[in-house]
């Protein structure tokens, strides 16, 4: 394990910011520490870096107890959103900073900086000052500076947070590629789930100072362990189970183990906007009868706002062509069938994933 965090807790006055947080990061992975603003992400990162002291718990770096080591002794590199470059130093001297502190021979420093300039695609910019760079270029220099002393782990705290959307997109792709080349164990903090999906091998989802769920991004998306994770990782419609019209008995969408759930009142369906099909006619499959309220073209997809029984609002997304073909309009009655949904039983606090197509096929 490159990073092990064990039972960390941290209070600020009476406020418990971090509550018994434990997780591990496998060597060579890029892991996203993901959660809403104020959930404790930066605090955890600062504790790992040695910039903050936890009240209880410990940190191991590459197997060694680092809990009592100084920032310098830990051998971590960091890039923070507001961890500015040295303004009075050239790009070359910024990147060389950590190497000069370690008193490496001049020729070695020069060679290492050249190597990093190439890695972050800034060869030719060595003599520039930070003020002569774009925001994206500055963060690439910051990353090169962090990587220069070959840190054991790299900690990134919303490193692209201050950049505009297009540059952020480019840098994410770039960071992922760079990580595939250098494989330095990285912990990437972000509140943006899209950004996390773009770059990370693993997610650690945090809320209110507690770890909610850990795992590969796609499995958390498809199989969230709590309503929080389901809602945080992407838009989701939540509807009481009784709103769905099951149709003929044999077409019940629920595996037999779940059919009893349908009798309970606090069971809800979680279904994502892209996990539904919409038709003009009822086709015998389980569906919602809905009224089209609004159509919003969003480029590649069209968002459809629907109402069910007048009081439940849902959103779904269709590929643009499909909507044009079917020519839906506000006021129309449509039938909506979920392809994939999660049935949440509030009593046992568990999700049961249901893939409708497969269920139907299995029975046919
Ligand atoms: P995040 O990075 O996820 O947005 P932080 O780790 O910065 O969250 O903060 C977690 C919580 O701890 C927040 O409610 C924040 O206000 C509080 N907090 C962070 N640092 C301090 C501090 N130095 N003093 C008091 N409260 C703090
Ligand atoms: Mg933060």
What does this structure look like?
The chain is of the alpha+beta class and 364 residues long. It has two domains: 3-232, 3-Layer(aba) Sandwich (Rossmann fold); 237-355, OB fold (Dihydrolipoamide Acetyltransferase, E2P). Helices cover 29% and strands 33% of the residues. The chain contains twelve helices and 19 strands. It has a six-stranded mixed beta sheet with strand order 6-7-8-3-9-10, sandwiched between helices. A five-stranded antiparallel beta sheet has the order 13-17-14-15-16. Strands 2-1-4-5 form a four-stranded antiparallel beta sheet, with helices on one face. Helix 3 packs across helix 4, helix 3 runs parallel beside helix 5 (135-147) and helix 4 crosses helix 5. The relative contact order is 0.11. Residues 358-364 have low confidence and may be disordered. It binds adenosine-5'-diphosphate and magnesium ion. The site of magnesium ion (MG) has 2 residues, from helix 1.
Write the layout of secondary structure elements.
Blueprint: E1 3-12, E2 15-25, E3 30-34, H1 41-49, E4 56-61, E5 64-65, H2 71-74, E6 76-80, H3 91-101, H4 106-119, H5 135-147, E7 153-157, H6 165-182, E8 185-190, H7 193-199, E9 202-207, E10 210-215, H8 217-222, H9 227-232, E11 237-240, H10 256-259, E12 267-271, E13 276-279, E14 288-297, E15 301-308, E16 312-319, H11 320-326, E17 333-338, E18 340-345, E19 350-355, H12 356-363
Helix pairs in contact: 3-4, 3-5, 4-5
The structure holds adenosine-5'-diphosphate (ADP) and magnesium ion (MG).
């Amino acid at each position: 394990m490159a990073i092990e965090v064990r039972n960390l807790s941290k209070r600020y006055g009476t406020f418990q910011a971090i509550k018994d947080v434990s997780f591990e990061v496998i060597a060579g992975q890029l892991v996203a520490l993901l959660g809403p603003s104020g959930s404790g992400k930066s605090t955890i990162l600062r504790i790992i870096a040695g910039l903050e002291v936890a009240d209880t718990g410990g940190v191991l770096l590459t197997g060694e107890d680092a809990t009592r080591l100084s920032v310098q002794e830990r051998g971590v590199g960091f890039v923070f959103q507001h961890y500015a470059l040295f303004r009075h130093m050239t790009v070359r001297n910024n990147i060389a900073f950590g190497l000069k502190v370690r008193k490496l021979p001049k020729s070695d420093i020069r060679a290492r900086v050249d190597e990093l300039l190439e890695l972050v695609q800034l060869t030719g910019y060595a003599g520039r000052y930070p003020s002569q760079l774009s925001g994206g270029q500055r963060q690439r220099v910051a990353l090169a500076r962090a990587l220069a002393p070959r840190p054991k782990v790299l900690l990134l705290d919303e490193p692209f947070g201050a950049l505009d959307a297009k540059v952020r997109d480019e840098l994410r792709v770039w960071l992922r590629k760079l990580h595939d080349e250098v494989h330095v164990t990285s912990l990437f903090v972000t509140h943006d789930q899209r950004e996390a999906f773009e770059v990370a091998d693993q997610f650690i989802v945090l809320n209110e100072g507690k770890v909610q769920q850990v795992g590969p991004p796609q499995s958390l998306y498809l199989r969230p362990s709590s309503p929080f994770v389901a809602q945080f990782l992407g838009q989701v419609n939540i509807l009481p189970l009784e709103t769905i019209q099951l149709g003929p008995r044999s077409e019940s969408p629920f595996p037999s183990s779940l059919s009893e759930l349908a009798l309970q009142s606090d069971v809800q369906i979680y279904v994502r906007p892209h996990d539904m099909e919409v038709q003009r006619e009822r086709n015998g499959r389980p569906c919602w009868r809905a009224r089209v309220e609004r159509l919003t073209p969003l480029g590649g997809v069209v968002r459809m706002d629907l109402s069910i029984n007048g009081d439940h609002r849902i959103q779904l997304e269709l590929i643009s062509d499909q909507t044009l073909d079917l020519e839906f309009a506000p006021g129309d009655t449509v039938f909506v069938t979920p392809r994939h949904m999660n049935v949440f039983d509030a009593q046992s606090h568990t999700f049961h994933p249901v893939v409708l197509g497969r269920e139907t096929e299995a029975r046919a």
